[in-house]
Amino acid sequence: MSATTIHFVRHGQVYNPEHVIYERLPGFHLSNTGRRMAETTGRFLSLNPATQGVAAIYSSPLDRAKETAQIICDEINATRQEEEHDPLQLAFDNRLIEAGNEFRGKRIGKGEGALWRNGNWRLLTNLMEPSWGESYQSIAQRVRDFAYEQVDRYPGQQIIAVSHESPIWSFRHFLETGRPEHNMLMRGTALASVTSITFDDDSKKVLGITYADPAGGCAGRNTLFTIVGKL
């Protein structure tokens, strides 16, 4: 039986001193800590025997994801150069983009432009179904389309996909429960973490889901590698 694993990586920490809800806005880049996170996760992916031999790396087109993916790509290629493997080439896919959000440009906090001013709070009618933006069903569907396409394109191999918290968790929740709807406050997708999903190439059945937080030390978290689910 042939199986393909896709490693969904959340981008690293963003430099955002004004606490803006940046969503799909341009110009939000990794902080210094975020770059260290990406470097740490890149080394984890390049050196861990369980994640060797990556065939392709994709990224959301947003700045923070592109920067994270490029750093990871560079880390892997540095190892590959030593082992005389062909270098990876970073590609972009819009299906990995952050969820649409009507709060984009608002600030978390007080003052002009704050989230809670001008009646914005009225959009928060149900945390399980984001009345403030793109539905969880839509998010999970586009990530599933991406994943199934990669399984067909790279059977038996490993892929890296750098994305965002909502797309990664919505898809995972869909695979584990049969529905993408969830409480956004209960997600388990830390910055620069790796959610690895293994698919049977023929049936697309999920064979296992693992989670790693190699960059946890950069942000004061303690978890390094935890298997949290297996189907």
Automatic annotation (TrEMBL):
**SUPFAM superfamilies for the chain:** Phosphoglycerate mutase-like
* Any one GO molecular-function label of the UniProt entry: phosphatase activity
What are the annotated GO cellular component locations?
cytoplasm
Say which species the protein is native to.
Answer: Bombiscardovia coagulans
UniProt cross-references to PANTHER family, sorted A to Z = BROAD-SPECIFICITY PHOSPHATASE YOR283W-RELATED, PHOSPHOGLYCERATE MUTASE
Q: What is this protein called?
A: Phosphoglycerate mutase
Top-level taxon of the source organism = Bacteria
